[in-house]
Here is the input.
Amino acid sequence: MERRVVVTGLGIISPLGIGIKENWQALCEGRSGIGPITRFDTTEYETKIAGEVKNFDPTSFLDRKEARKMDPFIHYALAAGIMAMEDSRLKIDQSNAERVGVLVGAGLGGLTTIEKYHSLLLKEGPKKLSPFFIPMLIVNLAPGQISIFFGAKGPNSSVVTACATGNHSIGEAYKIIQRGDADAMIAGGAESTITPLAIGGFNAMKALSTRNEEPQKASRPFEKDRDGFVIAEGAGILILEELSHAVKRNAKIYAEIIGYGCNADAYHIAAPSPNGEGAARCMEITLKAAGIPYSEVDYINAHGTSTPLNDLAETMALKTVFKEQVKKLMVSSTKSMTGHLLGASGGVEAVFTILTIKEGIVPPTINYEVPDPECDLDYVPNVARKAKVRVAMSNSFGFGGTNAALVFKEFTS
Here is the structure.
């Protein structure tokens, strides 16, 4: 019999706030975290807006000297990890250190650090580079720093799968516990790439919204006038535990994770496969892994990026998978409020999906003003909805045609 895995802690940093309370309140009120970019001069850029994290001080979580050795994406990962561990009240000591692991990824890693030190190199030469330059930027230093901070000596790894990173990280951590290689995992995603190179690069792909005059209305998933995604930053971290391990220490249980699936479109580096074929297969794989029929799913936290192709493909995929049930399904994109956190999005959206089950409130898709006739599902438009959610799925799809989905269920002993 496979080991059951439950969620006992949540940590989150997003454009909506720092911590569960701030984020959930903003989400339920339908507030946007999008605003003008403040990190650099955007005069020459087509896109001048993003979902920046506000009022974050890394020294609230770690020593000032240590903070200087880390890129912002690691600051977010470690801070969200600390919040999740405090929430779970899981203690790591000699008795269990080798049975607790960390699996946290990022899509682009330390781009802020790369740009900063490349500029310094060109101006002042190689002797000005910091000895911490490399450890600041590589993706696996997010789980590395978390493991060092807590003394977690179990499996330690990173997933890097663009916008599917957070889901893959949580899913693989779930599998590690399920097969008995750990009893608890700190898992999720982090990102901080609101930088000149990232904005310029995504603009070159025509991927970003240019609704600069109305930042809070720029992210509008599934809506007719959507014109691209809004880049954002932050981190979402879960504490996953084997059920008896959690029960033994009388842990608070938010939800149970019952399914994880992943696959590939094998179609295009950036565009989804026609009719959302790859996404549909991914959801079907996940439901099979969860051992439940599609009719049991109450809510989908959609990938819903606010790009014309992605939102249509995901809608078509949902119709393929959920058949006659699809019109009864509640579907919402919390990216309408947070923007797209790239490698952190799956982690942040897993937190939101779990809270939806726990609190009985479905977050809305805001900025849904003009319906798209081709996107015709119940996207919980503009206003949060009180509803009993027993089973929920969270979707994430990334460049390279990589797909990952998670299924969470209301916990019952």
